[in-house]
């Protein structure tokens, strides 16, 4: 009986360590868009903490992947175009709103190439 239990536990442990299935292109794109939403939230936080747009743009221009750099620069333009008073009334809600908005916009964006990026 003990051998059966040990074998079962060992089998379950090995099954848990097996390789994950590769992501489909749709799953990869969704993950990328989630990262873009998280980046938008971070950019909003920077704006709320008085980081200048020029500093944000300078940092974004260092991104090597063209698709990601373009997304980030557009997010910076959108976030810095918002009135600062609007962002300070309810800062948490503003960050969550921009995260969701950018994630949804990204998911709806047609794409034929997967960007190379580091998750945010």
From TrEMBL:
<protein>
    <recommendedName>
        <fullName>Lipoprotein</fullName>
    </recommendedName>
</protein>
């Amino acid at each position: 009986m003990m051998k059966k239990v040990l074998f079962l536990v060992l089998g379950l442990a090995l099954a848990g360590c097996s390789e994950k299935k590769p992501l489909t292109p749709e799953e990869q794109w969704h993950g990328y868009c989630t990262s873009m939403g998280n980046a938008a939230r971070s950019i909003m936080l920077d704006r709320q903490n008085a980081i200048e747009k020029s500093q944000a743009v300078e940092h974004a221009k260092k991104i090597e992947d063209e698709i990601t750099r373009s997304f980030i620069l557009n997010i910076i333009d959108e976030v810095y175009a918002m009135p600062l008073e609007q962002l300070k009334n309810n800062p948490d809600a503003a960050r969550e709103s921009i995260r969701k908005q950018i994630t949804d916009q990204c998911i709806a964006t047609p794409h034929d190439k997967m960007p190379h990026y580091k998750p945010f």
